[in-house]
Amino acid sequence: MKYEFNTERKYDIIAIGRACIDLNAVEYNRPMEETMTFSKYVGGSPANIAIGGSKLGLKAGFIGKLSDDQHGRFIEQYIRGVGIDTSNMVIDQEGHKTGLTFTEIKSPEECSILMYREDVADLYIKPSEVHEDYIKQSKILLVSGTALSKSPSREAVLKAVNLAKKNDVKVIFELDYRPYTWESAEATSVYYSLVAKQADVVIGTRDEFDVMENSAEGKNENTVNHLFKHSPELIVIKHGVDGSYAYTKSGQTFRGQAYLTKVLKTFGAGDSYASAFLYALISGMEIETALKYGSASAAIVVSKHSSSEAMPTVEEIEQLISGKTGQVTI
Ligand SMILES: Nc1ncnc2c1ncn2[C@@H]1O[C@H](COP(=O)(O)OP(=O)(O)OP(=O)(O)O)[C@@H](O)[C@H]1O
Ligand SMILES: O=C(O)C[C@@H](O)[C@H](O)C(=O)CO
Fold first, then answer.
1. Mean pLDDT, rounded, of the chain
2. Which PANTHER family does the protein's record reference (predicted)?
3. What pLDDT score does 330 carry?
4. DSSP letter string over 254-276?
5. pLDDT at 325 over 80
6. Cβ proximity of 31 and 254 under 8 Å
7. CB 125 within 8 A of CB 93
8. pTM score, two decimals?
C-alpha cells in the first residue's frame, strides 16, 4: 500500500523545531565523568531528519531559531552545505544559546544523552516567524514534539500545523520526547494529544506513545484505534531492536524488522529511521518497503559515531536491504 502526497510542490519536506549541537564521546566504553574528548556534529532530531532526507535526495527546508554566535553560524552553514534551504531559519536577537547534547557511550547497550537546554534559542521561535508562503510550498511539514514543550515555540508550531492543514501539506508528527524541557507529564500528554489528533502521520516509540497517553505499557491496538478516530491515516510505532509496526486507517498492519549490525551506540536510530521512511513514502514506495528503508538506515547509523553526519545514501540503504553487505534482519 502506498501513501499519496501533493506532487506539485517545491519542497518535499519542511521540518520545524530544533537545530542544535551534539558532542559525541570520542572515547567509548566509559562513563561521561571519565570522557575527556568529544566530536562536534549538528544535532537535534528534526535537523537530523532533514539532513538525512536531504542526503537521500529530498528537497528540504527548515524553520527554526539559532543563537547569534559561533554555534548558530556553524549549524546554519552545515545545514545549508548539505543542501537544505535555510531562508526561514531565524537568528535570535535576545541572547539565547544553542542547545547542547553530550553523549555517553558506556557500551553498545548502555548509551545515553545529557542535554543542556536551559533557555535555548530554538524554543524562542515566535508564531510571527512562521510563514504561510513557505509552508505551502512543501509536500510535508515535519513537526518535532519537543518544539511543543514551551512558549513561544509551542504556538509557532501550532500555527505551522494549522497552515499546513489549510494548504494540503501533510503533517508528520515525530513524537521526539526529550524530558529535559517539559514541565510535567500532564502538559506533555495534553500537547502531544492535541497535535497527534491533527496530524496525518504519527511516528514514535512505544514509550513515547505511552507519554502521549500519560500511561504505562499501553497497547498499540488501543493507541491506533483511538488516533484513527481523528485525522491520522498512518501511525508508526517503533520497538527498538524488536522492529516497528505501521498501521493504516484502512485497517492494515505492516511489520518492519531491524537489521542486525555491529552497534556502536543506539542514539540516532529514530532520526535516521524517520528520514529514510519518509524518503521512501515520498518517493512513492509501498509502506512495507518504507519500513525496510527506515530500519536499514537506522542500522547503518547505530553502527557509526554520529547521528547527522552518518546519515546513509540511498545506495547504502539498498545494499543493506538486498543483503549485499552481509547483514541480516533480526
Ligand atoms: N540495536 C539496533 N540494531 C539495529 N537496528 C536498530 C537498533 N536499535 C534500533 N534499531 C532500528 O531503529 C529503529 C528505531 O529505533 P528506536 O525504536 O530505538 O527509536 P528511537 O528511540 O526513536 O531512537 P533514538 O534513540 O534515536 O531516540 C527500530 O525500529 C530499528 O529498526
Ligand atoms: O535530538 C537531539 O537533540 C539529540 C540528537 O541530535 C542526538 O543525536 C540523538 O539523541 C539522536 O537520537
1. 95
2. 5-DEHYDRO-2-DEOXYGLUCONOKINASE, HEXOKINASE FAMILY MEMBER
3. 56
4. EEEPPBP---S--TTHHHHHHHH
5. no
6. no
7. no
8. 0.97
